[in-house]
Structure formats: structure tokens, C-alpha cells
Design brief:
The chain is an alpha/beta fold and 255 residues long. Helices cover 42% and strands 16% of the residues. Strands 1-2-3-4-5-6-7-8 form an eight-stranded parallel beta barrel, surrounded by six helices. β3, α4 and β4 form a beta-alpha-beta unit.
């Protein structure tokens, strides 16, 4: 069974558009879990453009299910110049405070609108390994954000990570054009390489109600969905949107 983790970044982004505490991410965490979602994902960035360090801490303190914290492990602390917004302590310091169930490491930076590529293990592996060891010493499961490149994925297991998260934007774009079979096969080959290496498989980025039923990946443990979910929550309501995503996941399951 593939678990559904809801990313709350866009809920926080709506809140940040006004000088207000609403919508409150922890409230929506409770709503999506009550509706049947299996976990919560947040991806704080040093500029705190959407989810904030304080939100992460609050979610960690009030969680009732799995919490996945995403981010660049090398993101340093940063002072905030906005009233009412605390400083960003650095990603690893935040993880140490929150102690999430899962940490997904992503090679992003402030200049990116959103995550747009996976790790290059040939280049980054040596610097990632001690970070992964530290995270696991804090009791966190560790996943690395990866492109569907079997050669790169085969190197991940030696670093001590538990899972990869397949970066699925290329699949979503191909699906929008009506021809996703070739791109899907790339992800299926990458997933086979991950399984052979002993890694669990997560996936995320631009998955939605249209393309998720066709994303048939053997051994897929978790999908993380935020932007599309927020749109569908506006269309259908939070509870109904969660139910629709669970139904889409059920269609995608591979025996």
C-alpha cells in the first residue's frame, strides 16, 4: 500500500499573504489526517517564503502521524527581517529540534521557485554521508531526492540512506502531453534499481489526480503531494480531496 503524505507548504503560503495566523498549518494537518492521509510533509526554506521554522516545530510537537521534513542539508541559519517571523536556524538544527520521522534531503536553493533536480551522488555523496549518519543517529529515516537515473540511484545505498524520492516532474509533463509511457518506463527502471540496492521508494512533484492513477511503480511506499492537493482542496473540500487522492493511489497499485 502506497502512503499519501500531504505537503502543507501552500497552506502556509496563503497565510503568509496576510498579517494573520490563518490558515494555520497544524489545523490543516489535523484535517487531512482525519480524512485518511497517512502523513504530513513540509519543506522549509531559509527565506521562509511559505512554511516557517516555527511551523515545523509546532507540527513536530502536535503530530499524531508521520512527519516528513524536506530541505537542503547544507542550508545555513538566516536572520529574518520580517516582524513576527523568527529566524531560520539552519536545516540540520531544525531537524534536531523537530526530530521528524523522515527527512528528505533535497539539493535546492533560494533562487529556485521549487525543487527542480535530484542529487548528483558522484559529486555530493562524500558530503552527504556524514549528514545521513547524523540524521539517523537522531532516529530519522533518510530519503534522498533523485532523478530517475539508475546509475546514480545505485550509489545511494552505500551512503546509508533508507529511501529515495523520485522527482516526478518529467513524468507529469509527459502525461500532460498524452504520452507518458516512455517516461514512465524510465521511472520503473529507476525503481527497480532502487529496490535491487535495498532502498525504499517515495515519489513526488507535480503528481495530481489525473496522472497519479497511471504512475504504476512497483514497491512505491509514499507519494508527497502539495500544490495539486491545495488546488483540489479548493475545488472539492479538504476531506473529499483526500478521498480522491486515496482512490487514485488505489488505482495505481501494482501487484
Amino acid at each position: 500500500m502506497t502512503h499519501l503524505s500531504i505537503n502543507l507548504n501552500k497552506i502556509a503560503l496563503i497565510r503568509n499573504a496576510r498579517d494573520t495566523a490563518h490558515p494555520e498549518p497544524a489545523e490543516f494537518a489535523r484535517l487531512v489526517i482525519a480524512a485518511g492521509a497517512h502523513g504530513i510533509t513540509v519543506h522549509p526554506r531559509p527565506d521562509q517564503r511559505h512554511i516557517r521554522a516555527s511551523d515545523c516545530i509546532h507540527l513536530g510537537e502536535t503530530r499524531t502521524t508521520e512527519l516528513n521534513l524536506e530541505g537542503n542539508p547544507f542550508a545555513a541559519s538566516r536572520r529574518s527581517d520580517r516582524a513576527g517571523v523568527g529566524d531560520y536556524p539552519g536545516f540540520l538544527a531544525l531537524v534536531e529540534k523537530v526530530r521528524p520521522d523522515q527527512v528528505t534531503l533535497v539539493p535546492d536553493n533560494d533562487n529556485q521557485l521549487t525543487s527542480d533536480h535530484g542529487f548528483d551522488i558522484c559529486r555530493d555523496g562524500e558530503s552527504l554521508q556524514p549528514v545521513i549518519e547524523q540524521l539517523k543517529s537522531w532516529g530519522c529515516r533518510v530519503s534522498l531526492f533523485m532523478d530517475p537515473d539508475p546509475d546514480q540511484i545505485e550509489l545511494v545505498g552505500a551512503l546509508g540512506a533508507d529511501r529515495i524520492e523520485l522527482y516526478t516532474e518529467s513524468y507529469a509533463k509527459a502525461h500532460d502531453k498524452g504520452g507518458a509511457d516512455t517516461e514512465l518506463s524510465r521511472f520503473q527502471v529507476a525503481a527497480t534499481a532502487a529496490t535491487a540496492t535495498g532502498l525504499g521508494i517515495n515519489a513526488g512533484h507535480d503528481l495530481n489526480l489525473d496522472n497519479l492513477p497511471n504512475f504504476r511503480i512497483r514497491g512505491l511506499l509514499e507519494v508527497s503531494i502539495g500544490h495539486a492537493f491545495t488546488i483540489d482542496a479548493l475545488r472539492y473540500g479538504v476531506e473529499n480531496a483526500v478521498h480522491r487522492y486515496l482512490e487514485a493511489l488505489a488505482v495505481s497499485q501494482v501487484d
